[in-house]
Structures are given as C-alpha cells and as structure tokens.
Amino acid sequence: MFWPMLAIAIALGFLGLAVLGVLAVRVFLEVQRLGRQVARTTQRIQQAAEELETAAVGLARTGETLR
Fold first, then answer.
1. In degrees, to the nearest 5, what angle opens at C-alpha 28 toward C-alphas 30 and 21?
2. CA-to-CA distance for 60 and 8, rounded, in angstroms?
3. What is the pTM of this model?
4. HSE-up of 14 (CA within 13 Å, CB side)?
5. pLDDT in tens, 9-26
6. Angle at 41 between CA 52 and CA 31, to 5 degrees
7. 3-state SS of the chain: helix, strand, coil percent to 5?
8. Model confidence over 47-60: pLDDT tens digits?
C-alpha cells in the first residue's frame, strides 16, 4: 500500500511542477507583451510632446508678431 501511494504522490508532484511551468511561461509572455505596449505608448507620448512643443513655439511667435 505504501508504494502505490508514494508513486501517486510523486506523480502529483511532477504534475504540479508542470502546471507551474506552464503558468510561468504564460506570465513571461504576458510580461513581454506588456513591455512592448509600454514602449509603444512611451514613443507615442514622446511624439505628442514634441508636437506640442513645436505648436507652442509657433504660438509664441504668433503672439510676438501681434505686439
């Protein structure tokens, strides 16, 4: 009776490790996807900041010509 229970316990241990491994891979892939999305968003924010700066310079020049 001892050996079959030990075999089942070992099998369940390996199964648990396999499930944890699959979950770890899924988390890793989601983190990579999130990192790419953050990088894209950072680039879009930087581009918007540059456009805002360009528009502000143009507006300042327009204000100076009205004086």
1. 125
2. 77
3. 0.67
4. 5
5. 999 999 999 999 999 999
6. 165
7. 95, 0, 5
8. 999 999 999 888 88
